[in-house]
Amino acid sequence: MLSLALRFTAIPKLICEDIGVQQSSSSSLPSVSYVMPVLNEADYLASAVNAVLAQRYPAATELILALAHSTDGTAEIAEALAAADPRVRIVANPARDISAGLNTAIAAAIHPVIVRVDAHSELSDNYTETAVRSLLSSGAANVGGIMQARGKTPVQRVIAACYNSPAGLGGGAYHGAEKAHPADSAYLGVFWRDAWQLVGGFDETVRRGEDWEFNLRIRLAGKTVWFNPDLRVFYSPRSSFAALAKQFFATGVWRAMLVKRHPKLHPLRYFVPGLLVLFLALTALVIALTAIPALTPVLVWVSVPALLICLLYFAALTLTACRLPGLSLRERLLAPFSFLTMHTAWGLGFLRGFCFGTGDTVDRSRLSV
Fold first, then answer.
1. Is the same domain home to 310 and 218?
2. How far is CA 122 from the centre of its chain?
3. How confident is the model at residue 99 (pLDDT cuts 50, 70, 90)?
4. How many domains does the chain have?
5. What is the largest CA-CA distance in the chain?
6. Could you read off the pLDDT of 321-351 as tens digits, one per residue?
7. The pTM is what?
8. Domain range for 218
9. Are residues 14 and 161 in the same domain?
10. CB-based contact 343:222 (threshold 8 Å)
11. Which residues contact 362 (CB under 8 A, 6 or more apart)?
12. CATH no. for residue 182?
């Protein structure tokens, strides 16, 4: 699909340069195509689709589900949803990857504005109209807002609270910035189909972090990516620490690839989780080696300060967990483990990707095979 999309890269920049002005001069809003990659989402798909179909938008809309081969009954649910509403269409995504699914769905879309939706998410009321008006008024090629995680089970609520905390994912704009501004990337994104064509679609060789890479090419083409805090998407995170670890490991691997590809465009904070993993591993090794009598006098001077730093880190996680809103006492006790899983799994993945490349790494948190 990327090869098909790449044929659009020769389109002159003038095609998109005045698109905001052209559309905003119209008295009606442009029609919209929602696109949603779907894989093993039986527990969430109906809610995500219903949130899309419930959007009050005064122009034509459609929803295209890029359906990958699933093993949990997702296909049957998708087919029932499509049969119940003519606005819903299904296209196949045999590659299973998000970037391939997005390209397939967008290629099938018929409307000028694309609204990306995640099957693990629900759009807030009036999301579409607010986003499109922001797209028009800002003159941007892509607009995104805030990702607000929320959970149903105790573990999922804990993970959601850690997602929403700056201590969990680093405090990016899409986790709670209060002012609209140009941004490096957009969570999900509402963008002109012409902008997708201009930059050649999503890069299907990027299996995680495809949104950041896509928005980078938009910015390199001279276009603007815009953050609007009035946009809000409710995201359902993974519901177990094991699934969370798989997801974050894959994310770390592919972020390392993007860092190596574009080193000047990534701040040093992306290296922090990897350095944390190395520090924890070396501390454990030094402490173990102090059991050797001949090494004890030398290593004790290293192991004690290192151990104190580790204890301070765990204390900071615990203190942060105590301040997370909306959790029970039992859930607060689980929160430090959620933070630790996020940091170490991402850091391990980053080290793996940085040192050895991505290989065939994918997010296996939703795969049963």
1. no
2. 14
3. very high
4. 2
5. 82
6. 999 999 999 999 999 999 999 999 999 999 9
7. 0.87
8. 2-238
9. yes
10. no
11. 96, 97, 207, 208, 250
12. 3.90.550.10
